[in-house]
Every structure is written in structure tokens, then in C-alpha cells.
Amino acid sequence: MSSFGVYGIVFSGWAANSKFSLMGSLRSTAQMISYEVALSLLILPVLLISSSLNLTLIAESQKSIWFIVPLLPVAIMFYISMLAETNRAPFDLPEAESELVGGFLTEFSSFPFAYFFLGEYGNMVLISCLASFLFLGGYLPIGCYACGSFMIPNFLSLGLKVSLLLFGMVWVRATLPRYTYKDLMRLMWKSFLPLSISLVAFVLSLLLILT
Fold first, then answer.
1. How far, CA to CA in Å, does 13 sit from each of 102, 121, 186?
2. What separation in angstroms does the CA of 33 have from each of 95, 104, 126, 138?
3. I want to staple 24 with a disulfide (CB 3.0 to 4.6 A). Which of 31, 62, 104, 150 is the partner?
């Protein structure tokens, strides 16, 4: 579902009839397609441990311990890939004001401009919900499962986890400088891809040994 956002950005950059918009849309396409490879691979360890594709069963399998604890490197890489997938800083190269004016948004204003931003922030909320289900227990209550007392009930738990992930995105935007485009691609193809494949192989071999 997240990959469908590429089509809107490509079409908007082409239809704007501006070299800055076209360059921004091409950058966004390459960036989103590249980091979708990492996102797909980083979801696999969670699926292998939970033995399910159902988000409810994935959340229920984290009653004893959240997956972020045993899979901390995977969770960190997944969060960084989330920033790149949603074009958030420091990976907001498609909207690099210093070199592309406004990227694929250069020729848009009023309602089309607002729709693009609504889509971007909606994508942030969607992928934060997915990350909370994969690594933070989803809707499971926050508290002590062993003693039976919960600090935060389940109807507030998911909203709090998603809000925490969104706060991290805003915090990173205000803290870190923007990457260069070559560094962005180098990080994916020379660092994230080999690491993610290695982590998947490690988790799979560990599960085979334990079972």
C-alpha cells in the first residue's frame, strides 16, 4: 500500500512541466523504491518469529516481550527506513529547497498542495501504526504483564505508541541535517541491504536451531 504513493509523486512531477518538479519526482521514486526493499526484508524476522501474517496474531505473540527487545537492530533499521520511505528529514531529498526549490511540489499551491501534505502525513501515521504492531505490541496494554497491573489500558496504548513514533520523526527533522543524495543511496545499497539480509539469515538459522 505504501508503494502506491510513488505513482502520485511521479505523475505530479511530470505534469508540473518543470525541471525541478521532474527531478524531485525522480529522486522520490528512486528513494522510495530503494528503501521498500529494506522495509520488506526487515519485516521478515518479525514474521518468522510470530509465524503469521496477521497483525492481530503478531501483536498477541508479543505478550511476553515486545519484539523491539530481541530485534533491536532490526527495529532501528526499520525506523530509519520509515523516514526514508515517507520522505522525512534527513531523507527529504525530493523536497530539497536548497537545490530543487521545492521538489515535486514546486508548481503546486492551494488544495493540491494541501492534499500532498495530507497524503504525506497520512503515510507517516500508517507506517507508524505498522511499526507499533511489528515491534511495540500494537494495541496490547503497556504495563507489567507478570503482576497483572497495567499502567495504560489497551484503548490508549496504540495511540500512545503511534504518537511516540511520530514525535521521533519530528524530533529527527529538527535535529539532523539533510543527507546528500549519493549518501542516501549508499546507505541503502551498501549498508542496509547487506545488514538486513544478514539479520534475516541470522534469525532464520537461530529459529531452526531452537526448534
1. 11, 19, 24
2. 17, 17, 18, 26
3. 104
Nearby residues of 170 by Cβ (< 8 Å), 6 or more positions away: none
d(CA 93, CA 104): 10
Residue with cell 525522480: 26
Torsion sign, CA atoms 11, 9, 133, 70:
positive
What's the pLDDT tens digit per position in 73-83? 999 999 998 98
Residue type, 151: M
Handedness of CA 18, 23, 24, 26 (dihedral sign): positive
- What is the pairing mode between strands 142-144 and 149-152? antiparallel
d(CA 29, CA 93): 11
Residue count of the chain, please give it: 211
Residue 73, preceding bond cis, omega within 30 degrees?
no
pLDDT for 112-169, tens place per residue? 888 888 888 888 999 999 999 999 988 888 765 545 555 666 778 889 999 999 999 9
